[in-house]
Specification:
about 240 residues; D-amino Acid Aminotransferase, Chain A, domain 1; Phosphorylase Kinase, domain 1; 6-stranded antiparallel beta sheet; alpha+beta
Amino acid sequence: MQKQKLLYKGKAKSVFETEDSDFLVLEFRDDTSAFNGERVEQLARKGQVNNRFNAFIMQKLAEAGVETHFEKQLSDNEVLVKRLDMIPVECVVRNFAAGSLVRRLGLEEGQELSPPTYELFFKDDALGDPMVNESLSITLGWATQEQLAEMQRLTYVVNDVLAKLFDAGDLMLIDFKLEFGVYHGRIVLGDEFSPDGCRIWDKATKKKLDKDRFRQSLGDVIEAYEEVAQRIGVPLD
């Protein structure tokens, strides 16, 4: 299946139509952004690494019974996906305190959260992706109560599967975000899962191995992504 008209260009990915209205091509670019696009740089190999990382994770989730939009890898930086009607609400799970949660509540970074927390954010860069709740999401027509319940259930399944996967690589899955959409009436996991959209630390040293290396100017961003990939078994060649 060939990519055709450019449908959308995001901060790190481009979306193309195909000859089949049910499918799209996602192109992972080397662009890296932070602070809602205020800082943008090109990092060599990033598109390829994230594409392979995402494909590996999506296949692991499918094996665990989570339906995803992933169909197959097309090239080093392209993937074929189902065309979803995206729900503009991000689902965030936090296993340990970091990022905005630390700033909001004054928690200690790395504090374990048991049980993990679950939050919803309205996906809108111009507004800074504000936190919302189920009531607002339903009232404003973003999703139904049933859809939100299924999104929460699937998010916790994803957390259970991936926390174990990363733990086996001596890594801590600190937090992550997921996006869902509707495909022929079903709630399906969309977007991507890569170190761009989660926080991952080394279990022993607490070294950050995710996009915080870019946000905080720690350096070796792609090297950290590759280290995570190798430790959980992602084939990068």
